[in-house]
Amino acid sequence: MADLISDHNGVSWEWRNESTQKPPKQVIFLREAGADKVLKAAYEHTAVIWQGDFHQAKQVLAAIKKRLRRPAKTGGDIQTAFHTHRMQQAQQSRILNMLAVEIDCGFQLSLPRAPDVKAALADVYETENTRPFLLPLNQLLGFIGAHEWHKKGIDLPQLNGKIHVPFGVFSPLRGEYLDLIAQAPINGFQTAFDIGTGSGVIAALLAKRGISHITATDTNPRAIRCARANFQRLGCAQQVTLTETDLFPAGKADLIVCNPPWLPAKPTSTIETALYDPDHAMLKAFLNGVSKHLNDNGEAWLVISDLAEHLHLRNNSFLTDCFQTASLEIIDTLHTRPAHKKAADPADPLAFARSQETTFLYRLRTCSS
Ligand SMILES: C[S@@+](CC[C@H](N)C(=O)[O-])C[C@H]1O[C@@H](n2cnc3c(N)ncnc32)[C@H](O)[C@@H]1O
């Protein structure tokens, strides 16, 4: 997101922020300041644009993070804990984003001891900037970290290869759901749709399993670019067509797979649209629309965990009710337990729910009657 804001000289600046937060009301340019001063400004909706040493700016940011860290609230029901946790995260992120830097033309960061950030920013934004803009330091650091991960890639044994994921695209880092896609029977399917392809990992896996014509869709243009690059690297670009579209492409397929966002909540940034889906809107639209796109004897595979149930964000019969409403019946259910570290992290306020999480692949078909 980009907004225009004015400094005290009336000069207008582009303020870039990946989250849906409102831009600051004011900006002040400072060579140095302590965490207290930046925090005080932040609470008054004023962003500090750091003009001094880059490493010092990082130290101030770390000090602010430490001050904002609050012990997880205990007691109360799990649903409230989830909403409180999300609210605290949003408030902390808004405050942290009030320490920013100026990015000059050509993605240059001209602070003393600043690293070269050009490649990291070119990874995030499609076109190079011809005007300076302001960017929260915390986000810049996130972009730098994501760029390193993007270059390195994630080794996926199910693919016998690597998936490279830039900032802003869902990462299959906790990839136990891929084991389910790798195990479910392919039944001679020749055509498939991968709905909400993200990095393209599921489409690539289906291609590896021998499906010759796959169409992958996503509404996030970054995901489309990322998936295209992954298909080329993995040598399956001939088998997969990419379409930037809402849910289904035109036509029908033997197999339609979807790994939707798993939690019914409001996203606060573009990347969160891969995790949170208000009122399960995408999930319901997928289930209600999938039959129209299935060939005779075709299957829909839905990948989803039950975390939302453990967080009391939906009831236990929600999914089966949705299947019934969409006239779908279950052929088989495959499941696995997450092996990711967060599931065992007692400092995570949602650890209780995460420790009970199971990931499912539902094989569905249109009801015969
Ligand atoms: C949980 S991620 C799954 C990504 C990938 N399929 C995987 O399994 O790693 C959900 C994806 O669905 C995409 N998405 C969300 N709403 C969508 C919609 N209405 N139509 C198509 N894609 C959508 C998101 O951008 C995101 O890439």
TrEMBL record:
GO terms for molecular function: methyltransferase activity. Signal peptide: none annotated. It comes from the Bacteria. Keywords: Methyltransferase, S-adenosyl-L-methionine, Transferase. One of its GO terms (biological process) is methylation. Residues 188-310 form the Methyltransferase small domain. Gene3D superfamilies: Vaccinia Virus protein VP39. Pfam families: MTS. InterPro entries: DNA_methylase_N6_adenine_CS (IPR002052), N5-glutamine_MTase (IPR050320), SAM-dependent_MTases_sf (IPR029063), Small_mtfrase_dom (IPR007848). This is Class I SAM-dependent methyltransferase. It comes from Neisseria lisongii. The lineage of its organism: Bacteria, Pseudomonadati, Pseudomonadota, Betaproteobacteria, Neisseriales.
